[in-house]
């Protein structure tokens, strides 16, 4: 239940640099969101370093989106692994599973559909509230697709996650299902307007 947002690093690892070189550094990230971070080296969100040591960092139920770095491939600009045995499961990466990261299963790629992509704290200008920028809209592929195993009971705002946790730090509480309604307007026996196709949500 952590949010790493709008951080900048002068070298590698925009938000976090896990340095296991000649030692041990194995981060364990569960239901974390990494958003809008930047590294002047590589690994816009995270850099996992394991040269001459041990780095077994794990990601579970995480969202890694809109991070960048000055160098590296698209996936390396998200998470950069150097002689690391990092593993990810049930996480969402913008460009897919990063290079040299072990696939623990159920990882997806794409847009998490944030509430406010450009406004990190939301309209109330306060972190850890329902309108935070990295909170998820109901249409997000990260909603109700995480694993409950080892997941915190509540999200970063205190909302109970339940049996179907979301990926990332925020749990979307909307219980609605979507349906499509096609509408054609008419007046007497003449059509006075175009047909409309709307998507609605009902609880």
Strand-helix topology:
Blueprint: E1 2-5, E2 8-9, E3 16-19, E4 28-30, E5 32-35, E6 38-39, E7 46-49, E8 58-60, E9 63-65, E10 68-69, E11 79-82, E12 87-89, E13 92-93, E14 102-103, E15 108-109, E16 177-184, E17 195-202
Parallel strand pairs: 1-5, 2-6, 3-7, 4-8, 5-9, 6-10, 7-11, 8-12, 9-13, 12-14, 13-15
Antiparallel strand pairs: 16-17
Low-confidence stretches: 189-194
Number of helices: 0
Strand content: 25-35%
What is the CA-CA span between the terminal residues?
27 Å
The biggest sheet amounts to:
5 strands, parallel
Strand line-up across the major sheet? 1-5-9-13-15
Shape call: globular
Secondary structural class: mainly beta
Average predicted local confidence, pLDDT? 88
Listing every helix as H and every strand as E from the N terminus to the C terminus, the arrangement reads EEEEEEEEEEEEEEEEE
Number of strands: 17
Q: How much helix is in the residues?
A: under 10%
Instruction: Compute the CA-based radius of gyration.
Output: 20 Å
């Amino acid at each position: 239940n952590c949010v790493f947002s709008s951080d900048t690093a002068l070298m590698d690892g925009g938000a976090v640099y896990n340095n296991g070189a000649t030692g041990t550094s194995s981060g364990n990230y569960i239901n974390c969101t990494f958003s809008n971070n930047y590294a002047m080296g590589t690994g816009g969100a995270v850099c996992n370093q394991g040269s001459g040591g041990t780095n077994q960092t794990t990601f579970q139920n995480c969202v890694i989106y809109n991070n960048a770095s000055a160098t590296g491939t698209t996936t390396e600009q998200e998470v950069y692994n150097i002689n690391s045995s990092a593993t990810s499961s049930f996480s969402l990466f913008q460009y897919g599973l990063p290079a040299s990261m072990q696939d623990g299963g159920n990882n997806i790629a794409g847009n998490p559909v944030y509430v406010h992509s450009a406004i990190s704290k939301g309209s109330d200008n306060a972190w850890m509230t329902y309108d935070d920028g990295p909170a998820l809209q109901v249409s997000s592929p990260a909603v109700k697709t995480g694993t409950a195993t080892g997941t915190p009971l509540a999200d970063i705002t205190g909302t109970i996650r339940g049996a179907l946790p979301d990926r990332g730090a925020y749990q979307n509480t909307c219980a609605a299902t979507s349906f499509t309604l096609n509408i054609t307007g008419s007046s007497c026996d003449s059509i006075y307007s175009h047909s409309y196709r709307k998507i609605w949500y009902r609880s």
